[in-house]
């Protein structure tokens, strides 16, 4: 949030604190207004506490400031709403009332506070990215012209552009946007912004997925994933539960048995897979009997029909094998690490603290399902929580050397 209030309403201490916040020095700002309880001071204290990481205290201060501003100070109250929305985003509390943010943005635009109004737009776009609504986020972003903004807001713009590009696997666009973000952050002179750009840039240089081909595995960078998906190979994509080839995309997200069979056949290609192995992969490790073999024949028939434009499924002496129509290669694209509740861990791996309601929105799953997954992960020591009731947050340290960009592209089935 831009930390400037109308000069008529401000005294020298408030103006100095606002300048300190704009320069990225929340400690200096607090030193100036820590003992004051008037509305502008409460707002600046709230923003400073948010910058220092005390989000709970920051939210309390901003709400107090919004109540303390008079009925004629609509712009100041709107700025408090924008700041509180940013805290909710950082806290991964994605269920915050977006209508309140939208109303605040309209108020700011009507009063000519274009910078804070633009910041509200960016908060909206960042939320849309987290819950996988890329098209809507891109349309909202298109309404903003970064050339009109100061360096700090231009940095935010380019980070959002890069975030969309990364999720669309457009690595050249993402790299260019991150380069512009780095220059703008350096110009702004705010260390936190520079660190955020550096963290985002690491995504391009750390493994994003795992390639399984001809019974061998290796990790892929995001750039290599983009090249693979643009190739003519048949790719059984276990990150998004689809089968791809030469621009054709077949979704099997709602047909888990067919996807399990397709993946098993692709991992063994150009060899075949025994009937016993396919039964174990598709039906959960049950001991094969005649009823399972009958069910396997039915599911293989369904898989043949689903894949008919891309590949055939031929019976062999031992089991079945994939036979590509035009492609010369069949591969599997998998997550870097696969384990129970991997989709929940993927979102938590960004190092931020998430609410269960935020995870529910991002995953497209019920909150109860997410809570069961979190309880299981907590019992295994893989996640930790703090706070109580609605203030409870979940987090886990980022997994070193791996990025989860592919997993965050769209809501995925939850295990």
Overview of this structure, please?
- The structure is a single chain.
- The chain has 415 residues and is an alpha+beta fold.
- It folds into 3 domains: 7-204, Serine Threonine Protein Phosphatase 5, Tetratricopeptide repeat, CATH 1.25.40.10; 209-223 and 236-332, Orthogonal Bundle (Arc Repressor Mutant, subunit A); 342-408, Orthogonal Bundle (Arc Repressor Mutant, subunit A), CATH 1.10.10.10.
- Helices cover 54% and strands 11% of the residues.
- The protein contains 18 helices and 11 strands.
- A hairpin with a 2-residue loop joins strand 4 (242-245) and strand 5.
- Helix 13 packs across helix 14.
- The longest helix is centred in the middle third of the chain and has 18 residues, at 171-188.
- The radius of gyration is 25 Å and the shape is elongated.
